[in-house]
Amino acid sequence: MANVHAESEPPRQADEQRHAGDRNAGTATTAKNTDILFHVSLLYNLALQHDERRPWWSRVEPLLLLGALPLREKQHLHQLTQKEGVCAVVTMNQPSELLPNLFATPVSPEEWRDANVAQCFGATDDFSPPTIDTIRRCVAFIHTHVDMNGVTTYVHCKAGRGRSTVVVIAFLMQHRHMSLEDAIAFVKTKRPHVSLHPKQMRILRSFAEDLSTEQG
């Protein structure tokens, strides 16, 4: 039975509700721009993968894969489950990113569920860092499935460069006892095009400091 974890959105504050009408135009513009950026970025990923310049996913450890958003048209679900042996998946995308878009149809949570793949959701905006709580929850999920259950786990965002990389690096720090610098360098040997936003680096430093404090 697939395990599904979801992170709820924070409640809207009363003052935000009072001024929502004043911000509607700006919010709509932001949503539109974000949508455009998502499609441009996804098309770029598709082009690079078509030219075989970038693999859709990379094997970081024997049971741990890091990569991009799985797509129905590319038969990624079949490849990941039947050829790579994936039995668990960590999805760092926002729900809107999992909907059909102009260029492709992402593998849906329902399709993963029907394939008996355990799921963990760490919904995070693109180019943004996951929260510490989200990182901890996703790392615990990976540890359970990789180290305790011995099954292959796939960690992905849109391109497999930022959000998902944060989680994999955090896992390596906590459960492989690597320093932040060593974990980043190690992941880059497996997936050279990973790229962390400054905000994502800051959250990883905070995570590393928390680990250091906890470990004495």
UniProtKB/TrEMBL annotation:
A Pfam family the protein falls into: DSPc
Hydrolase listed as a keyword: yes
UniProt cross-references to SMART domains, sorted A to Z: DSPc
InterPro entries: Dual-sp_phosphatase_cat-dom, Prot-tyrosine_phosphatase-like, Tyr_Pase_AS, Tyr_Pase_dom, TYR_PHOSPHATASE_DUAL_dom
Region of interest (Disordered), ranges: 1-28
Keywords: Hydrolase, Protein phosphatase
Positions with biased composition (Basic and acidic residues): 1-22
GO MF term list: phosphoprotein phosphatase activity
Protein name per Swiss-Prot or TrEMBL: Tyrosine specific protein phosphatases domain-containing protein
